[in-house]
UniProtKB/TrEMBL annotation:
PANTHER family linked to this entry: FLAVIN REDUCTASE-RELATED, NAD(P)-BINDING DOMAIN-CONTAINING PROTEIN
A Pfam match: NAD_binding_10
Residue segments, region Disordered: 1-67
UniProt feature, compositional bias: Low complexity: 15-26
Name used for this protein in its record: Uncharacterized protein
Length: 578
C-alpha cells in the first residue's frame, strides 16, 4: 500500500512519521500561524489529507480559528459597492414622491452627455449683448458664459449700471446708449456677433423710436464700420462689405446705361379708340441722364394704356467680380411714388424681374433678395446669380379708366382727353450694391409678435401696435444693412423656467400664446451658429391649439431638447429673406 505524504510548504501539515516527535511550544505556535496563512491561500481543488479516525478529535481540538486581517479588505471596491447599494435605495425612495433621480457620476464621463454646454465655436466667438440687464438679456448672458463665449454687455449709463453689478467679472461691461453712435462703436470693437435684446421701458414716442426703431440700425452701422476699419488696417476688404454693382460717379456709366425699348400697349378697343390710341402711342418717350449729383435719372412719358419703358446696362463689376455667393441686391433710389421693376438677364437670354417701391421725394434703400426674382417666361428655372450679365429698370403703365374717353366719343375733345390720360414717370438711382452671403447670422434681434390678424380691432391690440410699429421699422432697417440677420418675434414674455413646453415656430402673425424668457434666450443662443437661422424672421411661442378657422395651417411644435438642436428642424420649413 502506497503511503502518501504532503509537504508543509503546500498545506502546512507535518509528515506522519514525525507526528509523535515532541516540538517546542514556540515552534508549534509559529507553525500553526504559518499553516493558517498557507491554507487560506491554497486552491479549493487540492485534495484534503486523510486523517486517522482515532486521532480526529485530537486534531480538531488543536485547530486555530481563521483570523481575518485588515489587509484583506479593498476600501475602494467596498466604497463603490456601498455607493451603488445606497444609490439604488435612494432611487427607489425618490420615485415615490418626485420625478427626479440620482446618477452615478462615474457613468457620466462621455462627452455626448455634456453636449448641452459644449459649443466648439464658443472659444473663438465674442458676443455683444445689447440690453443685457433685461429679462431675456440677463438669462442669455449666463447661458453664453456657461458655454465658453466671451461676452460684452452694452448697458445704459444710469439704470443699467446698477443691475450690471451682478454680472460676473468675465463680462466686459460697456456703458452707453443704443442711440449713441460712439458708444455703439466702442462696444463693437472685437465683436463677432451681436444679440439685440434692448427694448423701450416706456411707451413714449421718443423712447420707442430711439430704442426700438433707431437702435438696431445704429448698432449694425457701428458694427459695419468697425469691421471695415479692421479690414483696412490689414489692407483687405471685409467679408461682410457690400459689393459695388452700379455707381454713377464713373464717366463711362452714361454710355453703358441706355434706353433699351419703349413698348406700345395692346388693348381690345373699338376702332375709334384704337385710332386715337395709335396716334398717341407714337409720342411715348423715355430718356436716361446723369444729373449733377452723379445719379442716374430715368424719366419719360407714356400715353399707351399698357405701355412700358426700360433702361439697362451690361453688368460690369469692379475687379471682374460676379454675383456668385451673393444673396441679393441693395438699390438706393428715389421715385415718384409709382412702382418700378428691376430686371436681370442671364447669359442664356432669360429674364427675371422683381418689383421695387421706393418712397417719393427721398432716397431709400431697397433690399431685393435673389429669391424674389421671378422668371418672365413660365417654365424657366430659378435665377442663378452667377449667370447674370445685364441689369435694368423697367416702368410699366398702370391700367387706367377710359371713362373720360368713352363719354366724349364723337366730340372734338377726344384728343384732349387722351392727352390728360398721359403718364409721366421719374426714377432716380444713386447706386446698386450686392449683399454678401454667408453661413451664419451676424445680428440676432429680439423683437415682439404683433396682435393676431383676427384681433386687430381690439383695444389691447391698439396698445400693442404702438410698441410693435417702431420695432417693425427697426427690423426693416436691419435687413437693409447687409448683415446676416435673425429676427425673433416672441409672444408675451413669462417669468418661468424654460425647457418644459413645446415651442411653435411660425410666420404670419397668428400666434397668441406667451413664452418664457429662458426659452427665448435659448433660441437666441442656438441661432448664433445655425445656418438655417440666417436671414429669417419668425414668431415663437408655446404650443397651442389654433383658433377656429385656422386649422388649415400646420403649426409644427418642437420640444427644447438638451441632447440635440431643435432649432434647425423647426426653421427648415420657414421662408428665407423675410
Amino acid at each position: 500500500m502506497t503511503r502518501r505524504t504532503f509537504s508543509t510548504a503546500v498545506h502546512g501539515l507535518r509528515p506522519r512519521s514525525l507526528a509523535a516527535a515532541p516540538l517546542p511550544a514556540s515552534h508549534t505556535q509559529r507553525q500553526a500561524r504559518r499553516s493558517l496563512q498557507v491554507r487560506a491561500a491554497s486552491s479549493d481543488e487540492q485534495p484534503e489529507p486523510k486523517v486517522t479516525p482515532g486521532k480526529k478529535g485530537k486534531r480538531k481540538g488543536k485547530e486555530t480559528p481563521e483570523v481575518v486581517k485588515l489587509d484583506d479588505f479593498n476600501p475602494y471596491s467596498i466604497g463603490r459597492k456601498s455607493r451603488a447599494i445606497f444609490d439604488d435605495v435612494w432611487q427607489q425612495f425618490t420615485k415615490l414622491s418626485s420625478p427626479t433621480r440620482s446618477f452615478n457620476m462615474e457613468q457620466l464621463g462621455s462627452a455626448g452627455d455634456r453636449s448641452e454646454f459644449e459649443t466648439p465655436q464658443a472659444a473663438f466667438t465674442t458676443v455683444l449683448v445689447a440690453g443685457a440687464t433685461g429679462r431675456v438679456g440677463r438669462v442669455l448672458v449666463r447661458k453664453l458664459l456657461l458655454r465658453g463665449y466671451t461676452v460684452k454687455a452694452l448697458v445704459r449709463k444710469r439704470e443699467g449700471m446698477e443691475a450690471a453689478t451682478g454680472f460676473p467679472s468675465t463680462v466686459t461691461v460697456v456703458n452707453g446708449d443704443v442711440g449713441d453712435y460712439e458708444a455703439c462703436k466702442a462696444a463693437c470693437e472685437g465683436v463677432d456677433k451681436i444679440v439685440y435684446c434692448a427694448s423701450a421701458r416706456t411707451t413714449m414716442t421718443g423712447d420707442l423710436k430711439r430704442v426700438n426703431e433707431d437702435g438696431p440700425e445704429m448698432l449694425a452701422v457701428a458694427y459695419h464700420d468697425t469691421l471695415n476699419a479692421k479690414a483696412r488696417r490689414r489692407k483687405q476688404i471685409s467679408s461682410r462689405a457690400k459689393k459695388e454693382v452700379v455707381k454713377f460717379t464713373r464717366e463711362d456709366r452714361l454710355d453703358e446705361w441706355q434706353v433699351q425699348e419703349v413698348k406700345k400697349g395692346e388693348d381690345n378697343m373699338s376702332k375709334v379708340r384704337s385710332k386715337y390710341r395709335a396716334k398717341q402711342s407714337r409720342r411715348d418717350e423715355a430718356t436716361v441722364t446723369i444729373n449733377k449729383q452723379q445719379n442716374l435719372v430715368f424719366e419719360g412719358t407714356l400715353y399707351s394704356m399698357r405701355g412700358s419703358a426700360e433702361a439697362g446696362s451690361p453688368l460690369r463689376m469692379r475687379f471682374d467680380e460676379s454675383l456668385k455667393g451673393c444673396e441679393g441686391l441693395l438699390v438706393r433710389a428715389k421715385t415718384d411714388g409709382q412702382p418700378y421693376i428691376l430686371t436681370l438677364t442671364t447669359s442664356e437670354n432669360k429674364t427675371y424681374t422683381a418689383r421695387i417701391s421706393a418712397p417719393a421725394d427721398r432716397f431709400a434703400n431697397n433690399r431685393v433678395p435673389f429669391n424674389a426674382f421671378r422668371p418672365a417666361e413660365a417654365g424657366d428655372p430659378p435665377l442663378e446669380p452667377v449667370l447674370v450679365d445685364r441689369i435694368g429698370v423697367r416702368f410699366e403703365a398702370r391700367n387706367r379708366t377710359l371713362q373720360p374717353v368713352l363719354t366724349n366719343l364723337g366730340s372734338s375733345s377726344v384728343l384732349g382727353d387722351l392727352d390728360s390720360n398721359k403718364l409721366d414717370f421719374r426714377f432716380e438711382m444713386e447706386y446698386i450694391k450686392a449683399l454678401p452671403g454667408g453661413e451664419e447670422t451676424d445680428f440676432v434681434m429680439v423683437s415682439c409678435a404683433g396682435a393676431p390678424l383676427w384681433d386687430r380691432d381690439s383695444e389691447a391690440a391698439a396698445v400693442r401696435d404702438k410698441r410693435v410699429g417702431p420695432l417693425r421699422r427697426g427690423e426693416a432697417a436691419l435687413r437693409k444693412t447687409g448683415l446676416g440677420y435673425t429676427i425673433i418675434r416672441p409672444g408675451p414674455l413669462l417669468e418661468e423656467p424654460g425647457g418644459y413646453k413645446a415651442l411653435v415656430f411660425d410666420q404670419g402673425e397668428r400666434i397668441t400664446q406667451g413664452i418664457s424668457c429662458a426659452d427665448v434666450a435659448d433660441v437666441c443662443l442656438k441661432a448664433l451658429h445655425d445656418p438655417l437661422a440666417r436671414n429669417k424672421t419668425f414668431e415663437v411661442c408655446y404650443e397651442y391649439t389654433p383658433e377656429a378657422g385656422l386649422a388649415m395651417y400646420e403649426l409644427v411644435a418642437h420640444l427644447p431638447d438638451k441632447a440635440n438642436n431643435y432649432l434647425g428642424p423647426a426653421l427648415a420649413t420657414l421662408e428665407k429673406n423675410t
